[in-house]
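Consortium newsletter contribution from the modelling node. Members have asked for a concrete example of what our holo predictions look like. Here is one, prepared for the thymidine-5'-phosphate complex that several groups have been discussing at recent meetings.
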Amino acid sequence: MSIFLTFEGGEGAGKSTQAASLARRLEESGRSVVKLREPGGTPFGDEIYALLQDPSSRRLRRFYKDWVGAPGEQPLEPLAELFLFEAARTQLVAQEIAPALKAGQIVVCDRFADSTTAYQGYGRGLPLDVVMNANGVATGGLAPSLTFLLDIPPEEGLNRSRGAEHRMEQQGLEFHQRVRQGYLEIAASNADRFMIIDACDPTETVAEAIWKKVKPLLPLFQPLP
Ligand code: TMP
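And here is the predicted structure:
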């Protein structure tokens, strides 16, 4: 028995904190957990992350806009961006997620394919069928067992994450509003695996709501000897 848990949400929603907190609780309960993040999670994915997001990356910011203080005029094509996220995901699934699930481990991933549907589909405006097909190819059809959507108004989330200075944060408020709306629509059409959580609640309240959902599943997993 294996389980694949993902965290999704806009900027400043607290996904990383909650993913780490859940992984820690699972480990404390004696289960074997593999904790991953997207984009990244493999050396190849980390390079793509650095290329796309890192404010100190000099590689693309000289030529393209949307980096903080970038002199470039040209936008990075949304489809080119899509393929980079999918390339990182392809490697992550093959190298980490599929083997861990095969070995019966619990996989906790900070972002997965729903991020691409929300950001590149709803946010950038790429056709949703193109994004979903690309997701399907990169994941080989693998979908999370359970997805926690940490929902937060973008005004509040961006305020919280101010200073992170990565590229998506340079997008206007309307972009982030489309991303949030997209997430809510994705959750509504995948209600069987989504749990929407109010990320404006205190961190501890959010962590408890997540644990309440996961704890009953623990008997399905043997503790480590
Ligand atoms: P994070 O490390 O704060 O989660 O930042 C990752 C950023 O990358 C965030 O702004 C969302 C963005 N992103 C996409 O646009 N598409 C994707 O498929 C993924 C995984 C992330």
